[in-house]
Amino acid sequence: LTACGQPAMSGPTPRKHTSQEEEEIVMSTLRRLLHAIDCGDYSTYCELCDADLTSFEPEARGMLIEGLTFHKFYFDNAQSNTPGSSQSTVAHPKFTLLGADH
Questions:
Q1: Angle at 97 between CA 12 and CA 18, to 5 degrees
Q2: What distance in Å separates the CA atoms of residue 33 and residue 39, rounded to the nearest whole number?
Q3: Looking at the whole model, is its pTM more than 0.85?
Q4: Neighbours of 72 (CB within 10 A)
Q5: d(CA 48, CA 71)
Q6: CA–CA separation, 37 vs 34, rounded Å?
Q7: In 3D, which of 30, 29, 5, 19 has the Cα closest to residue 89?
Q8: What is the tens place of the pLDDT at every residue in 28-73?
Q9: Degrees to nearest 5, angle at CA 47 with 17 and 5
């Protein structure tokens, strides 16, 4: 039994992703997030963002934004949430994966 009293899982250990696979997972998730924003898909946006996120947004004039409520306002009040009405592009993605395995 595990520390939580659940039966220990048996079977093969999941395979670790290569750095290239991890980078593609990040880019794929970023594309989904940008598509959700462009299309006004708040449900997908919430699926991909932590409910406790913090950010500094130009519209907030330097104030720290906490949570998704501020972003919900913009999804609800966008001029047009139809696919193709806006398009986001990532021209030269560059990021560093962090964690114990990197």
A1: 40
A2: 10
A3: no
A4: 13
A5: 13
A6: 5
A7: 30
A8: 999 999 999 988 899 999 999 999 999 998 888 999 999 999 999 8
A9: 70
